[in-house]
Design brief:
Layout lengths: L1 H13 L8 H4 L18 E3 L21 E3 L28 E3 L21 E3 L16 H11 L4 E4 L2 H10 L3 E8 L5 E6 L11 H9 L4 E3 L10 E3 L6
Antiparallel strand pairs: 1-2, 3-4, 5-9, 6-7, 8-9
Length: about 240
């Protein structure tokens, strides 16, 4: 009798306990949270995490490319394809005459003078006009020329660009990722991924972790331009990060 009781007690305390992994940790494993542009080679599709929820909408598991791949823009009852995130850039002259630049503070309460310059976007701001406008920021070094200079030395050559919205954010955040990303602020802030649920520490991107996972040792995420939004590239092989 005592032996039987001991066996039951051992079974009770050794039973595995299921634990739900927080969404922001799942992203490190959900490296395939992307879909091709056309899931069946003809019709467009996009990554939609609601396809994994009860009562999944029409068009999921598009072309057999994954449950969260969903057909769109077909006109046969499919959802319209989501628009790509607007670029975090502005033309050099928003009205064809006066210079302007991208300023994310234009989207904050009490936006400064000169925002929505020439109707090119709320975060486009006139500058250097002399009529109370802010002085234009100094232009960032040309990123392409910086890439070429690095490549010419063959010490750490330019390899490829970085697709933050389409590849890095889905890799990092998995099902918590909404499918859009934004950029602004200083070089230390840069890109953030739009998430369904906020997570501790924010929703910034870890470009180097993505490069390490996808390309391995000897490849680095670099930004010679110093601009937080443009100029990012993948360099390698043979680079020291």
């Amino acid at each position: 009798m005592m032996r039987r009781a001991a066996q039951l007690l051992l079974c009770t305390f050794s039973a595995p306990v299921a634990a739900e992994t927080p969404g922001h940790l799942r992203g490190a494993r959900a490296q395939n949270a992307t879909c091709p542009d056309k899931c069946d080679g003809v019709i467009r599709c996009f990554y939609d995490p609601t396809c994994s929820e009860p009562g999944a909408p029409q068009g999921c598991n598009a072309g057999g490319k994954g449950q969260n791949c969903r057909f769109c823009g077909n006109g046969g009852g499919d959802i319209e394809c989501p628009s790509p995130a607007p670029p975090a850039t502005c033309p050099e002259k928003c009205d064809g005459v006066t210079r302007c630049f991208y300023d994310p503070t234009c989207s904050e309460p009490g936006a400064p003078q000169g925002c929505n310059a020439g109707g090119k976007g709320q975060n486009c701001r006139f500058c250097g006009n002399g009529g109370g406008d802010i002085e234009c920021p100094s232009p960032a070094p040309n990123a392409t020329m910086q890439h070429q200079r690095l490549q010419a030395g063959d010490e750490c050559p330019y390899f490829d660009g970085v697709d933050v919205q389409g590849k890095v954010c889905p890799w990092q955040y998995g099902d918590d990722y909404k499918g859009t990303a934004s950029c602004g602020g200083s070089i230390s802030e840069g890109w953030t991924c739009d998430l369904y649920h906020g997570i501790p520490g924010g929703s910034g991107v870890d470009l180097q972790a993505y490069v390490d996972s996808v390309h391995g040792a000897g490849y680095c995420a670099k930004n010679p331009s110093g601009d937080p939004c443009v100029g990012w590239g993948i360099y390698g092989p043979g680079c020291t990060c």
